[in-house]
Amino acid sequence: PGVPRHTNRLINEKSPYLLQHAHNPVDWYPWGQEAFDKAKTENKLIFLSVGYSTCHWCHVMEEESFKSKEIGEIMNEHFVCIKVDREERPDVDKVYMTFVQATSGGGGWPMSVWLTPDLKPFAGGTYFPPEDGVHRVGFRTVLLRIAEQWKENKDALLESSQRILVALQHTSEIRVQGQESPPPAKEVMDTCFQQLSRSYDEDYGGFSKSPKFPTPVNLNFLFTYWALHRTTPEGARALQMALHTLKMMAHGGIHDHIGQGFHRYSTDQHWHVPHFEKMLYDQGQLAAVYSKAFQISGDEFFADVVRDILLYVSRDLSDQAGGFYSAEDADSYPTTTSGEKREGAFCVWAAEELRALLPDPVEAATEGTTLADVFMHHYGVEEAGNVDPMKDPHQELKGKNVLIARSSLELTAARFGLEPGQLSALLQECQQRLSSARALRPRPHLDTKMLAAWNGLMISGFAQAGAALAEQGYVSRAAEAAAFLRKHLFDPSSGRLLRSCYRGKDNSVEQSAVPIQGFLEDYVFVIQALFDLYEASLEQGWLEWALHLQHMQDKLFWDPKGFAYFSTEAGDPSLLLRLKDDQDGAEPTPNSVTVTNLLRAACYSGHMEWVEKAGKILAAFSERLQKIPITLPEMVRATAVFHHTLKQVVICGDPQGEDTKEMLHCVRSVFSPNKVLMVTDGDSAGFLYSQLPFLASLERKDGKATAYICSNFTCSLPVTSVQELRGMLSP
């Protein structure tokens, strides 16, 4: 490429998404005072465009509209244009997405919103095609109509924007009504289970027809429901729903069978054709949920999926300083000479390509069988491609195959006269060859922004996997990432988290000129990660930091009037609403996760006001939890933990002693949703002793590692047998 024709202010930003738009003919501004002042001084409307760097339709709108000189001129003449990376500024995104969803009934990215000079929204949508079509108004037309309205009917627009804002403030408020208390766990759990059960796909797993998202929050809820109803038919069904969904996802095209890890979601019912971007928050949550599936079932299949996800993240999403990158794009150039990117190009295969790469005859199989025959049969490859044209509106996948395990190992082995073990080895060889071939293709864009919240989710994934699979290497990787957060995304002078940092030149880690302060989700997911990391590593320093951050979260975000936490701090005049999210989606909402965090924090510190706060959050969301709990499965799960009281599992023993290790292995291998683990080794100067004086009275029995199960700081009789301990751990 030659010298770019245009360069705008975004060239000075760090966000990969903003940098992607730095050479548009649009005079983009980042979100900030300079743009707001310009809009006021020139009395111009603001056009706000929000997206993220791995968003397919964001790329499409940029290609069609933001790179167009003519559309750029219209935008620059009539509007002050602001670009926002929703992953950097979820606060701005949520305010205006609340407006778009309320006024259009839908939402998504790219988000396009028109604001008055004082930032109040009055019109909005998502993707617009550049020109008018049969069913849609084009972007150019919308721009000109809105500019005309501002000229002709300015007062009416201002009045309408004020009315909209008042309505949004009213409808988005979540607060305790009167004397509400936390809703009863049994009813809320049962209703949530019934609602999920009704939406469950019996054939393919998952909870909708299409599109299908992994939604780990649903699976975590089902595991907890099973743990509390083990002996009932409902409990058995909950477990079956979760494990079947996880198996079907792992077999599906949403799982990258060659490059590991999971794509963002499936466009069809069968988990077959995905949107190909890979997000860090999915890898973190899925590593944790597949670890729980392994704990519960003992089936190595699930442990292998965990290893697969963590291999992908270690190899492709890891910064050398220890942090984790945000995402990999869906679109890439099919070959090194291609002029335009295509969705999925890095991941899909033509049948003839596979035949050329896997021509070897298979000695042990029926005569004439090649590696390609076996591989193509197992992964559903078809000569003309296996993608339904209905799922490929732009014909980007025509003639290509998205790999999906169509058959069990046993059936494929039987078909070719092989043993399952032989087949496994052959498929592994094929995967290695295809991986080498794929490495020669141009890679998709990598978003090297590092976010505190998503790093928190990934640290939990590594820590929980390390504990459940007894893999010390995973625990060490989690600790390395936590140390990265402490160094690059924490300000020791203020005691506060920062939202983001970036891979700079020469692989250094860079920060924006004005760092973005952490949001509620950053605190909540990092605190959860530090608790998970303590339980996996027993390093008390992580516990100490978690409790410090919990105090800071209370100070910055707690709503003393209506209860629960706001997503953002007070005092930013550019944010029109302080919101509380009320839906567990691709990521759990922070208030859902923080209920369990607060209960864990109370167990480790003895601060009972944290238990009280947890109850107040449940009270604030009580109506929603009782009517449509399916929208908050993680908070429903937390309701059960709140009412069942967490068990403090205390092991007295030398952490390096074999008897202590056996007990730890027992605790970590049992799925118990309402326990916290701590180890005391007689070091009375330790942090835990300073927080929990009752620990001083617990000691080893007969010189052996000894376990106590405590509830509200009252402990059971000592236990030295692993079998006995296992029995006491079930909820």
UniProtKB/TrEMBL annotation:
PANTHER family on file: SPERMATOGENESIS-ASSOCIATED PROTEIN 20 (PTHR42899:SF1)
Gene3D superfamilies assigned: 1.50.10.10, Glutaredoxin (3.40.30.10)
Gene name in the database record: Spata20
Every Spermatogenesis-associated protein 20-like TRX domain range: 7-168
Lineage: Eukaryota, Metazoa, Chordata, Craniata, Vertebrata
Protein name: SPT20 protein
CDD domains: SSP411
Pfam family, one: Thioredox_DsbH
Source domain of life: Eukaryota
GO biological process: carbohydrate metabolic process
Entry-linked InterPro entries: 6-hairpin_glycosidase_sf, 6hp_glycosidase-like_sf, Ssp411, Ssp411-like_TRX, Thioredoxin-like_sf
